[in-house]
Amino acid sequence: MNSTYPFRNQPLPFDFDALEPFIDAKTMRLHHNRHLQTYIDQLNTTLKDYPDYHSWTLTQLLQNIASLPVSIQQPVQRNAGGVFNHVFYFSHLIPNELSHPKGPLVDAIGKFYGTFDNFKQELTTAALSVFGSGYAWLVLNARGEFAILTLPNQDTPLPQNLCPLLTVDVWEHAYYLKHYNNRTAYLNDWFQVVNWQQVQKNYHTFFL
Ligand code: MN
To answer: What is this structure's pTM?
Structure first.
């Protein structure tokens, strides 16, 4: 999230079919190469004539929307949000055989939510409650406590000074080709390909 204008779409660290059968290759390809790419292109177009902000990182843009010229506040919020959320979502996916829910972070989540399965159920319930398009998030608040929340469209937790740990995209484009309208089935499959090691890195970074 430290990149600056012009933003570029980085390749995924695995093949598009690497998450099969949980998330299909066609969905991954379209999601990365078209959906994310469109947000990147629109963000670059929005900022093109505003060189004052070409040195701002994605995070700086999203945390300081109110400092931007009014005319670009909404397109930056939507498109920088779309870039941030997708990069965050993709960077917390990993092939199933490398997804290991264990370690200090998983223990801490289990302690906070009673059990790790309770946490999964609470995140699933939150993700199912998103009406229309959006994301469910696991974050740390300013006191370092876990919290689950949902945000609509391409809103991000950054303006609320929350530290994102994990997110799941529940826009229909994230699952419709394979799971059709069955968001529950998608969420069960998504849990099979979560990059818990990356979530743990986020967790440790917060406390450093
Ligand atoms: Mn998406």
So the answer is: 0.97
